[in-house]
Design goal:
About 75% of the residues lie in helices and about 5% in strands. Helix 2 runs parallel beside helix 4 and helix 3 packs antiparallel against helix 4. The longest helix has about 35 residues. With about 140 residues, it is an all-alpha fold. The protein folds into two domains: about 30 residues; about 90 residues.
Amino acid sequence: MSNGLTWRYLLIAAALVILILLLVRKGGLKGIGPTEAVLYMVTVDASLNVFSAQNSSPQTTELFAKDRKATLMKYVWIGDATTLALGIFASVIAGSYWPLLGAVTVAVFMHFLYVHAARKGSSSGEQQPAGSKNGGLALVGG
């Protein structure tokens, strides 16, 4: 990752932390208790599990984006849809919007992470990993 990109991500993360601290300090998060936190975090965890089950890693997406970008991104969209369906279902059962908010958080973050990986891999001048040929893997070695 380039230095400029690293600093950009660090600045965004710092801005989000400051925003949350300001919200807490001004009382903007009053009424949010342990139940809401658990609903949010359980759905975040389940949503991340959806992405890990349905998608290659962002690193793999970057490595194979030149040959397989459309296929890789198809599964990202499927992960988005599955995650949002999970959040809606959990919100209906819980009678709270927190599970949906957890699912949306993960879907947005992961979608942009995969878009970045696919864009970086498509524009990269790097060669494909050893053993790859037209997006597939060939047996390497004896």
